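quick one
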Amino acid sequence: MDMMLEFMEQISQAEQIAIGGHIRPDGDCIGSCLALQQYLKKKYPKKIVDVYLEKPSSIFSYLKGFDEINTTVSEKNYDLFLALDSSSVDRLEFSEPIFHRTKKTLCIDHHISNTYYADKTLVFPEASSTSEVVYEMLLLQEKQEGKTEEEWIAWIGSEIAAAFYTGLIHDTGVFKYSNTSPRTLEIAAQLIKTGIPFTQIIDQSFYEKTYIQTQIMGRCLLESIRVMNGKVIFSALSQEIMKFYGASSEDLDGIIDQLRIIKGVEVAILLHEVKTQEYKVSMRSNHTVDVQRVAVYFGGGGHKKAAGCTMQGSVYDVINNLTGLLEEQME
Ligand code: 5GP
Ligand code: MN
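structure w/ manganese (II) ion:
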């Protein structure tokens, strides 16, 4: 049987379902979790479907189900755990204990670096987002039951569509990154048929910045350093600077993209200190460099053109280690 239909079969058999996503959940993570949860609640009103995510940013508060997201671990037991957009088990972070004590586990993802930690794993590295994978999985089941895509879209309505759409725009940089396929745009076309306020969704969740976020971005750009003949650019934020601006990691969205689009840059790196001498590393590449390979080497993961990891040491150590590996790919 098709793997997607097998997943749908297992989901339909479970009565109590937990859905979990990755640490520091982004738009795709939140969008895919809430789209799946809201779909399951609508289709199977008797099922209990709970979402577990580290405190999500309030920019996503327009999504249905946002206020019911569990941000702390509970003692509840579930028949099935669905891990979304999480390439390794440690990425589940606080919901990991629930994952481990749940008998059946399924993972739905689009990270090529997925470690196949669940009982069954569905990975489509060519999909723009986990939201796209979830959409295709639910649609396949509905088609099996005789519905057309148009009929299904009319049935899900604007609230579930908004969650899928949020996932698509966040992982494609509003349909701009190379992971955007004709199919991604076809799905977006279906979603806007439901009447979602897409302009508002894009502005509120993607482009809008607070004053502090803008200031910290300015500071990162001002203090960025180019190495390797301008092919690599990096910027680092210490804990001290983060504290000075009262900023947290969710305030850094968009900075790395601004570094990446600088003329001549192949790889952009943003470091932000999460503990003393421990840096969260974000990397983006423009063309040939596979930053995922570098991230995996240091225990992280991601995609060819967008990846991350956590590294110890001074900024100098971290950049030296990263550029050493990047150089091998740029010769
Ligand atoms: P970002 O730089 O926006 O945090 O992440 C870019 C991509 O790399 C995302 O797809 C994200 O899931 C992945 N990623 C970032 N940090 C890590 C990490 O520490 N471990 C793994 N496995 N993936 C990461
Ligand atoms: Mn994703």
